[in-house]
Amino acid sequence: MECTLAAVSDFAYTDRATGKQYILGIIRYIWAARVPTTHGRLAVTFALEEETRSTRQPVLARLHIQDADGGDITPPSPEIQLPFVEIGPASFGRSLCQITIELNNIALAAFGDYAVLLKRGETEVLARARFSVQP
After folding, report:
1. Which residues have a Cβ under 8 Å from the Cβ of 79 and sit 6 or more positions away?
2. Largest alpha-carbon pair distance within the chain?
């Protein structure tokens, strides 16, 4: 499985009719006068590709938000079934999952690096989107 897109933004939307992903305001840094701070709204967008399997088992994952030390700053999400679909003739034999998740009122306790991870099981990281909180 390959992560082809991982982004944290102000707003993101996947058009179900066309499959296009619209991402506005990619966030690399969140500027804060002091910490702890709360960010009102983040959108996290991932695109994953893999070879199409003739017998597909559901791919289940959880969303984790981690600080620079790798500790979860919120409890992991409930399991999400990733919606893989075949790409078609442009990339025969490949399947694609496009997912956007909105996160509201995320408490950020310290300045530094953070990551939003999509993990299968306890250890397998499928995708990672990073951002940083700066003074």
Report:
1. 60, 61, 62
2. 53
Residue 88 per-residue DSSP state = -
63: nearest Cα among 36, 10, 38, 99:
99
Which of these, 101, 63, 62, 60, lies nearest to 81 by C-alpha position? 60
Inter-residue contact 57 to 40 (CB < 8 Å)? no
Q: What pTM, to 2 d.p., does this model score?
A: 0.88
- The whole-angstrom separation of Cα 115 and Cα 64 is 8
The residues facing 40 across adjacent strands are none
**Is the distance from CB of 21 to CB of 45 less than 8 angstroms?**
yes
Tens digit of each residue's pLDDT (9 = 90 or more) over 10-37:
999 988 888 889 999 999 999 999 999 9
- Alpha-carbon distance of 104 to 39, in angstroms, equals 7
pLDDT in tens, 27-64: 999 999 999 999 999 999 999 999 887 657 888 999 99
